[in-house]
């Protein structure tokens, strides 16, 4: 699965340049031209990395950094024409992971993004491979397999599965899941969570009506159950 990259840039020429650069290097690129669209795209796509310009027409980039980092550890690389050292320090102190000034060198920018991707992956998934019975998740490649056969998950389904896998055996409340995956807790998002959980179960469970992996705790939340091959054969 390609690395999902969200580029937040209001200059069309720079936006086009960045899109072409990263698509040529096998990234899946999503674009936003202002702060409102950036937050919408972030919650919809849940990208692996964000490249962020500070001078947006409707809000400061620093505000976006704070909003994203409040709920996620997604790496953010600031790409800005502002060269003031104090500006860099403020961004880094508020959660930005790197800061590159314009004009930029394309190869250096690609290298910085690769470094962020490696650090984030190693930090979040030190073992890289999660195995639970016949379920295998490769956190590096973002692939999921059941009984050795790779299955396709949507970005939201994958985020849900990873979240549950990271807390195997624990009951995660609806509020916790909504906050972690959607970035906010709204009652109106609960039906969407249930729909995504239903489609996820259809893809990983032998019998979705009698699930082995994801248990529902009515009015509370969901739990990833620890499995072994013997337990599934009985």
TrEMBL record:
InterPro entries: CheY-like_superfamily, OmpR/PhoB-type_DNA-bd, Sig_transdc_resp-reg_receiver, WalR-like, WH-like_DNA-bd_sf. Residues 4-117 form the Response regulatory domain. CDD domains: trans_reg_C (cd00383). SMART domains: REC, Trans_reg_C. Keywords: DNA-binding, Phosphoprotein, Transcription, Transcription regulation, Two-component regulatory system. The modification 4-aspartylphosphate is found at residue 53. Residues 127-226 form the OmpR/PhoB-type domain. This is Response regulator transcription factor. It comes from Staphylococcus ratti.
């Amino acid at each position: 699965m390609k690395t999902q990259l969200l580029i937040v840039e209001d200059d069309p020429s720079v936006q086009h340049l960045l899109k072409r650069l990263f698509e040529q290097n096998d990234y899946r690129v999503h674009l936003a031209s202002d702060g409102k669209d950036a937050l919408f795209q972030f919650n919809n796509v849940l990208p692996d990395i964000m490249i962020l310009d500070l001078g947006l027409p409707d809000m400061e980039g620093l505000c976006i950094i704070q909003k994203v980092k409040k709920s996620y550890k997604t790496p953010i690389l600031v790409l800005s024409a502002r060269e003031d050292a104090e500006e860099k320090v403020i961004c880094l102190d508020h959660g930005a992971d790197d800061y590159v000034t314009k004009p930029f060198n394309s190869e250096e920018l690609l290298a910085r993004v690769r470094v962020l991707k490696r650090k984030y992956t190693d930090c979040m998934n030190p073992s890289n491979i999660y195995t639970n019975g016949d379920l295998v998740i490769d956190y590096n490649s973002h692939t999921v397999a059941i009984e050795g056969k790779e299955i396709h998950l949507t970005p939201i389904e994958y985020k849900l599965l990873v979240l549950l896998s990271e807390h195997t055996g624990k009951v995660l409340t609806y509020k916790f899941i909504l906050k972690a995956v959607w970035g906010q807790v709204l009652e109106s998002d609960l039906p969407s969570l249930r729909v995504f959980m239903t489609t996820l179960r259809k893809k990983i469970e032998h019998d979705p009506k009698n699930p082995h992996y994801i248990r529902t705790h009515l009015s509370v939340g969901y739990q990833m159950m620890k499995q072994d091959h013997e337990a599934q054969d009985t």
